[in-house]
Amino acid sequence: NVYYGNSALKNTVNHVFNANGSCWNAHRQSNMSYDLSYQVAVNNITNSIIYDKSTGVIVVKPVNTQGNWSVSGRYDYSCPVDKLKHLQLSTKTSAYYMNNIEMIQEGFENPMKRSSRHELLINEELGATYRYEKWSIGGRIRWNWEYATSKREGFQSINSTDMIYGLTGIIPLPSNMQFSTDISLFTRNGYNDSNMNDNAWIWNARISK
Questions:
Q1: pTM of the model
Q2: Residue 1 half-sphere exposure, CB side, CA atoms within 13 Å?
Q3: Are 54 and 26 in contact (CB under 8 A)?
């Protein structure tokens, strides 16, 4: 692996355009917030990579590229659904799209190729919590989806999904102590490596004072 510097690099300038807001309803005890963002990079610094298959040599050098940008959005909302306001429902939704420029060259005799990698991330989380005095029980479902593609030769597209199903609970104990626990099932699908497509249970328990 050979790494070079580049004295001709220009400074990167990031332009960020953002809009956000929130609203709190004291009577209903509901809360809403949103965020929208657009970012574009001028003279973004990217590592160009030269890979020679015959010798295994990899040469890395930072260069300035144009065309890197991203856009994202987020929306959160929560509110009680019963008159006594014991049961609280919530939703969290977010999306992120990114366009990244890659500089790849295969072999020293070939020209450097410029390609774009497109990546889309979507997340959704639904939650419900019931509280009564110092007691609490809740559940959540979280869904994460990632999709990435590129026209670059040899690029393996990504189309993966991560899911989380969870339950939580808080139980008051004597002497001002508290027992809290959560159990979650993590599932992963769509990965190129079959070892990553699995299910896993995780259980946490705590006693605090």
A1: 0.83
A2: 4
A3: no
Per-residue pLDDT for 200 more than 90? yes
9-10-16 Cα angle (round to 5): 135
List C-alpha distances in Å: 29 to 25, 86, 124, 189: 5, 11, 22, 38
For residues 25 and 82, the answer to whether their CB atoms sit within 8 Å is no
Residues 6+ positions from 110 with CB-CB distance below 8 Å: none
The confidence score (pLDDT) of residue 179 equals 96
Query: For 101-146, how does the pLDDT look when each residue is reduced to its tens digit (9 = 90+)?
Result: 999 988 888 888 999 999 999 999 999 999 999 999 999 999 999 9
Maximum pairwise Cα distance, the chain? 76
